[in-house]
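Appendix B. Chain record.
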Amino acid sequence: MGYRVVVVGATGNVGREMLNILAEREFPLADIAAVASPRSQGTMIDFGDTGKELKVQNIENFDFTGWDIALFAAGSGPTKIHAPRAAAAGCTVIDNSSLYRMDPDVPLIVPEVNPEAIDGYKKRNIIANPNCSTAQMVVALKPLHDEAGITRCVVSTYQSVSGAGKDGMDELFEQTRAVFVGDEKVRKKFTKQIAFNVIPHIDVFLDSSSGYDGYTKEEWKMAAETNKILSPDIRVTATCVRVPVFVGHSEAINLEFERPISVARAQSILREAPGVMLIDKREDGGYTTPVECVGDYATFVSRVRRDPTVENGLVLWCVSDNLRKGAALNAVQIAELLGRRHLKKG
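Structure tokens predicted for this chain:
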């Protein structure tokens, strides 16, 4: 016996990846539906490598009654309309947008980090998936925090264009081509040229009323979501940068701890931590880059070293496939956790 699962936004990058991962992990399914906007209605979409195709249904008239779980990858606009409708019909929503992340009645879950928080999902019948850059970071931070108590985190991100959706990937491709053939480098999605460039700007700028004057919303998300998921006592400051990489987010993370922790101890902890793959050789190529992480489930950690500028400080490099652990994989893992702790069908 399995679950009846709906993937909403099934034709987008994350929605397609959700279907792939459901198939790869052999999620116990009694039925699967692909749902998207009216313009995608009738489109045929692959269900991973199973050989099965799904006909995309129209979200506007889809009936969630009798379905167990809805994985939403449709953006905040459609989610605001249709997630409450699904939840009211008895279908538990796992939402990838930012809409519900800071709602106190909606658990924000990374299964390796705060699985027990999922028990509060019944208040709204909605569970939130964190921001892609936050998800991979807290997987790496959790075991270190348990050991020595993180007090401060300074993170700089190097985020791929797939985080901006298909339009972002298309823009990098077209601009890169234009550089080589001498065409005009057309800019639509990003505020500056992205090909052969980096842009220190993701999402909108916040004003002084937010308490984060001069920061972007993406940078605020990393702080606020880390506090909700891991601990409200960790001070987090972020600089989020878009880089000309198609898939895979990277982060340089500086940590300060309440108690001493050696590099060797940190490496030992990370080597055994759930969801973490430690690749940390102090030699040429002895670290992980976005190219190597694409298609993998793990959060990769490399270059663990002491920070000599502060007491009890460490520095590390963190890389993960943002379409997987940063979005689709985490959502499916939440569904698996929900099944184990509450729905218990498969």
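Further analysis of this model is presented in Appendix C.
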